[in-house]
# Entry
Amino acid sequence: MLLYEPIGLTVNMLSSSPSIYSLGLFLTMSFELVLLFLAGFFGGVLNSIAGGGSFITFPTLIFVGIPPIMANATNTFASCAGYMSGTYAFRKEIADHRDELLLILIISLIGGISGAWLLLQTPQAVFREAIPWLLLFATVLFIFGGQINTGLKKIASNHRHASSIGGILLLIILFGISTYGGFFNAGLGIITLSYLALAGHTNINTMNGLKLLISSTVSLIAIALFIYNDVIAWYEGTIVLCGTLAGGYVAAYVSRQLPQKQVRRFVILASIATTLYFFFDIYAG
# Structure
């Protein structure tokens, strides 16, 4: 049973001719398939080069008619494969920090399932109104993430021998980040990098590996809860996932030719435009 209505279906159902209805349904489904795959493809390319792929995939899932909470859960599902493959690629860097991995995994699991549970308890209308604010938060993090990380690295280097209270505060921050990731996946990587900088990490490869490990853990436990509550749109999510994998694969070959500053500017413009659209649609529409 469909919990949502694909775009154009209501209009097509008004047709009294079965053949016209069938053609209209075929064209609608074909358009959605292509749109979702392309969104996943470009999202995968962006995630591999500059980040911010969710600014493409999440709004597209809403555009094709999936309710906001289900779109958010589906976007988490579609993004997870990229996190996992990236984690495997950085397995050697991650293994160098095996002493802290167990605690990181436990906190990430607890935070991820807490955020996913909070999402499922949130009324659809409330989450819909929160979307532009969540996107605004993620956009600000994407734009100023570099400056935030630089500042946090300075703080970390000046307090490398912090007290045990500082360690507890870091665990609380990690729990908050994981909870955010289980609730709303966009911007998770940027926030996690900021946390790792504050924790004293300086090697960018290690930071990327741990970032992807945390993102994978948070997403997997959230997806498990989403599956149990049947809030993932499997057809649409699988198409986006395939597009994401294809985009990430292609990006691995073309990333050296693409100027990252230009790609980053595109993501910033797209994120600002998407955020403004949702503010207008929800509060002025």
The chain has twelve helices and no strands. Residues 9-283 form one domain. Residues 124-158 form the longest helix (35 residues). The radius of gyration is 20 Å.
